Amino acid sequence: MRDKHSGFLIGLLSRNEIFLWTSILLLFGSMVISYLFAGFLDSILAPLLANFQQGVSDGTLKLETLSLFINNATVASYMYIGGVLMGVATAFLLVANGLFIGYVASKVPLGDFIIFTLPHGIFELTGIILAGAAGFKLGSIVFHFLNDVTKIKRNISIKNQISYLLKVNYDDFKNSLALFIIGVILLIIAAFIEANLSIGWGQFIQSVI
Questions:
Q1: What is the pTM of this model?
Q2: What b/e readout covers 50-82, taking b as 16+ CB neighbours within 10 angstroms?
Q3: How many domains does the chain have?
Q4: Any domain includes 114
Q5: What are all long-range contacts of 200-207, with beta carbons under 8 Å and residues at least 24 apart?
Q6: What pLDDT digit, counting tens, does each position of 29-47 carry?
Q7: Is 71 among the domain residues?
Q8: How buried is residue 167: exposed, middle or buried, by Cβ count under 10 Å (0-12/13-18/19+)?
Q9: CA dihedral sign of residues 22, 133, 108, 104
Q10: Range of 69's domain?
Q11: Contact (Cβ atoms closer than 8 angstroms) between residue 127 and residue 187
Q12: Looking at the domain assignment, is residue 24 inside a domain?
């Protein structure tokens, strides 16, 4: 059973490698750029960071598993659904999140940032990457479907042709949905770790180094 699941996961990732790499490059690329050029982004990102900090302090944003999961799952859902727009919205959200993460990292000692975010960040960033890849996969499906629709022949049943195109793209849609679901599962794990373990872990590491 384990080999079966492992084979499915490896195959899923392999079939969608280009979308995964696109997601990784957009997220981490924007993180690095934001970290290195944070000063140029102050006018845009400083208010967002202030609002985030205010939300945490007044309890609007709670460091609880459910609250954290809903926040991250909402972003992931927008990334996935945004794929319908040929992946443009997906790309925008990946870059926006990357810029914000990199900007936050630039405002605190990098070592502290890594220590306190590493436990949950591994799962959270992977979940976001998978959601982004799922969105790009969905965008690819929409693009190819619309492209094929333009080639429909009028002398053959249009209904049958549309039905055929839907069947052809069904497996790809299942792949996109599988990527998204796995990403959401990772976000659940990330939310639990962030709410219950990350701060304690960070404080422990600080006390021994």
A1: 0.92
A2: eeeeeeeeeeebeeebeebbeebbebbeebbbb
A3: 1
A4: yes
A5: 201/115, 201/116, 201/119, 202/112, 202/115, 202/116, 205/115, 206/112, 206/115
A6: 999 999 999 999 999 999 9
A7: yes
A8: exposed
A9: positive
A10: 61-208
A11: yes
A12: no
